[in-house]
Specification:
This protein has about 375 residues and is of the alpha/beta class. The protein contains 14 helices and ten strands. It has three domains: about 60 residues; about 160 residues, 3-Layer(aba) Sandwich (D-Maltodextrin-Binding Protein, domain 2); about 130 residues, Periplasmic binding protein-like II (D-Maltodextrin-Binding Protein, domain 2, 3-Layer(aba) Sandwich). Strand 1, helix 3 and strand 2 form a beta-alpha-beta unit.
Length: about 375
Amino acid sequence: MTGRLVRVAPMYLIERSLAYYWTRDKLPMSYQSNRMRMNKFSKYVCSIHWMLAFWGGIALFVSPPVSAQNYPIKQIRLIVPFPAGGSSDLFARTIASKMSQSMGQIVIVDNKLGAGGTVGIDALSKSSPDGYTIAWGTVSNISLAPVVYPALGYDPLKSIEPIGMAVSAPFLIAVNQSMPATNLKELIDIAKKTPGALNFASVGNGSLSHFAGDQFKSLAGIDIVHVPYKGVAPAVVDLLGGQVQIMFDQLASFRLQLFQSGKLRALAVAGPTRLPQLPLVPTAAEAGLPNFGVTSWAGLIAPKGTPTDIIRRLNSELQKALGTKEMTDLAMDQGLKVSGGTPEQFSEVIKLEIEHWSLVVKASGFKRD
């Protein structure tokens, strides 16, 4: 109803204005000279042009809001703030393909890299909140990076609208084959006997794997040295080569074959349940460190202010994509779990993770570069 009134009101006002111009001068036409008639006509035409321009401009500002009723009417851009070919890119592209088929519009992936995934999220936060730009958000670039680097151009609680979680994966505590520890208790005992002698690798200073190690140190009461790398690949290479002895990350970062071949040894799963791919590996709680938990997760987000009905529509399409066998098989292959859930549930996870990592980062004494 409101939209109809918005469209009708300008025309009604124009009609009333026309009536005024036609009736304001009651003099018969026979008493007016040609010059007077031409002057009156010129004023009339100028006034009509002015009114059409004025009311046309007003109509633009009071157009009906974006609605999911006929959404989408054009392609949707999905910002993936990680390199093409990686695990995040693979999942995002698969979801984009499924959503494209279901929605009847192309969901195109835009790999926007930089600063550990924060450049892409910053770009999203500055996009129009109309449902045509969404992003692949992770625990690292939504809940951790803003804590580590508060000068970022976005605040996850003020700049984004959660759509829904897609996948999650617990971290593993992994050691190389030269380490004598065969379980978590033995690793902690060795570290206590030789403080500062063991190193743990991370994918970068200020990364999730960095603070997973710091959290482990604090809970276990040990002193192990952090060695940051520029990405997963060089960190895993040095772990295999013995330059570092321990690493904390998800299964997809290590590859299952490295554990199956014995080149790496998983001592515990930093999550509530065991991994089906490594059923003999206990959880950290089962291994004697009940409060140690680190989970990597990812999902879809939109700019703050995106209409609720469009968020609901996107969430519904995400759930359809996650429910396919292709997604389930892909998740199993990568050591991930299909999550799903509502926007509200995803929002709550983001808030809790920000609170958790704020405490861990503060306790670690981390110094920003």
